Amino acid sequence: MTSLPGLAAVSARREDFNRGWAFRRKVTAFQELGGADGAPWTEVTLPHDALVGGPRSADVPGGETSGYFVGGVFEYRASYVAPETDRGSQVHLEFDGVYRDAMVYVNGALAGQNAFGYSRFLVRIDPFLRFGADNEIRVACRSHVDSRWYTGAGIYRDVHLVVKPSVHIALDGVRVTTPDVDRLRALVEVAVDLENAGPVTAGMRLDTVILDAAGGRVAFDSQPVTLLPGDVLVARSRISVPSPALWSAEDPALHRAVVELRDGETVVDVQEVTFGVRTLQVDAEHGLRVNGEPVALRGACIHGDNGPLGAAAIGRAEERKIELLKRAGFNAIRSSHHPASPALLDACDRIGMYVMDETFDMWTSGKTDFDYASDFAQWWERDVEAMVAKDRNHPSVIFYSIGNEIPELGSGAGGRWSRLIAQKVRELDPTRLVTNGVNGFVAVLDSVLDGMQQRRAAAAEAGPGDDRAEGAGVNGMMTAMGQFMDQLQASPMVTARTEESYAALDVAGMNYGEARYEGDRELFPNRVIVGTETWPAQIDRNWDLVTRLPHVIGDFTWTGMDYLGETGIGVVRYADEVGGGSGFSTGYPGLTAGCGDLDITGSARTLSAYRQTVFGLRSQPAIAVHRPANRDRPVAVSTPWSWSDTVESWTWPGFEGRTVQVDVYSDADEVELQVNGAPAGRAKVGESKAFVAEVDVTYQPGELTAVALRDGVEISRASLRSASEVVQLSVVPDRAQLTAESSDLAFVDIALTDENGRLQVWAERVVHVSVTGSGVLQGLGSGAPVTEESFTDPQRRTYDGRALAVVRPTGRGGITVVVSAAGCAPVSIELHVA
């Protein structure tokens, strides 16, 4: 064995490569020769969404799906001075996600590409670098009628520069599993991929240290490794860890494995992996068990955007999203319908959230004109490999979902694809569960399309009526079918046509398929079911099924948090405001889906309190007041994704003496309402809907109190108080101390309140935000589902009295944020960046 010459001077490194970029709408040299003007370059810090600050138009094809943002082709550029000392090393750019059809050029030469918009991919750039000199890196990408939701565009996830010596640990080359665990000890297996790209044999030593959450060393292993030129070998360590802290969503204890490759005393390469010690079991008799304990998944489907930031997956935004969802009572998320960002998974590991990470929204059958279906046959294996490589050390990931509402699943060809993809996932990682978001309606869509066309024809002959299905794709069709959806999902036709696709899975994921839950217990006694996507208003029925049926392990509502695009699927609309777009969509300028327990700023809707009541996480009654101005307005559109048009407020100036409907969410038998201490109405809980009491009350300013009664005895109460006539600004950051990292943000909640801090829902204002010092205003938004306002403008109209500003540090120092609004004294806050 021979040590590599000069190896002591070479070290591996992985660096943040998010700064120093600029972007523009792409204009090719040929277009410029033809007279087209090149767009100006705008400096940005990654992650960055190229669409969110751009134009919106009612004329965008399929605009309701994308929030009417205008797509296009974009390019990014950055300069990189390659150190002379890196000559002879492998230099890579690691992209966590570029939407979409990314082409990476170094000094004008194509260095790599990636078709899918959600896969992490590596581009080796050292063959194209000029060492000791400046180098230009460009990334081209596009977004155009290729998705059923808002995707954003550009380099919207992190980028890292990775430098490796010729003998090294492979990228994503450390895999940690815990195959044998009990309370006294855990067997931790660490598999390390090692590569020798050099010309001579290398004799190395591989050290592995296991650290606990506090950084204390709890176990160690060391072994010699011999690598011939061209070798790609796996070194495995089986390490016993005494008295391990176990990871679960309830107690997210983490460990770290630090793997060092040494030549003598010189560390040649090092990788650090965070992991969790846990076990995972599932069967139809016991359901899901984590560390031997039964777990019911209180799940939320989420899309990838971060509201006012668009699709930019900035670390703190991903972390805050998980914090908010956990606070709202969820213990699991489904990344719909694409692989989650590494930053999101890191947050789920730290905070404690189970994850169902999803591969694709389509396989070979496209859903939009230019989507991934045309790339699927050539790219699917690489994209599955990329997802598993990203996920396999994250203890939060317990499911791989291989698809969502795939039309092929009702055919033999779809069953074959199910087996191929599931087999690939299991070959790469046999430690997680494989599922698929199967929609029985979509799986037999070919058989029902004729019936839907006949229905439309009959409706046209009958005259104007319900047109919710028109122009709204599968969502509109599902809405229009109403209760027939349940009958179809449980039908023998769906049973027969989906059986093979379900057989390929560890857990049968069912989208809107709760009508199958009880019957499948008899038809398929070994089938374990999870509700991968469900109507939000049916959580009372669905959660009853989860708690009663051991083979049903959880429910994932659509959605935990509102999102951009699919405009209006959850918005309650009234007859006097309908117009524009299809009956299903709000039309332009619709911005968000208008569904979710939380709006796009993270503010909780009343649905959130209802869900917590159903889950048994809330003991006090929750009061939801129907907006009195809408009492006599006929509802024109309310979809299965809608909730009641209610808010948590007892401030309604101008409606004194008028009748207001109040809903109280409670697990009690009965609820009494009191206004200013006097009885104002009483109703039984569950008469029209489980966990809900509905009471008509005459509005008077003051205090509205809900008293929950069981067997006639008070068990809890809650109150709302009217705000005074004072309207002032409340400005509260989530944190005052920030770091200068590209991943950090400050979220500044802006609210209109009275002098006692009570929210003024009715008193809307346009708020203006200025940011000076070591930071910039990254985004400003509200929860409004329909608006023409831009997230990148420094002013925004409040919605239900709230807005949200997002501030991004640009360097160390102080940041001053000033918020003003008409009729309110301006408020200034200080943030510090260390």
Describe this structure in words.
The structure is a single chain. The chain is α+β, with helices and mostly antiparallel strands and 834 residues long. It has 5 domains: 7-164, Sandwich (Jelly Rolls), CATH 2.60.120.260; 167-280, Sandwich (Immunoglobulin-like), CATH 2.60.40; 298-612, Glycosidases (TIM Barrel), CATH 3.20.20.80; 618-648 and 652-721, Immunoglobulins (Immunoglobulin-like, Sandwich); 728-833, Immunoglobulin-like (Sandwich), CATH 2.60.40. 17% of the residues lie in helices and 37% in strands. It contains 14 helices and 47 strands. The protein has an 8-stranded parallel beta barrel, surrounded by 5 helices. Strand 27, helix 13 (539-548) and strand 28 (552-557) form a beta-alpha-beta unit. Mean pLDDT is 94; it is low at 1-10 and 465-471.
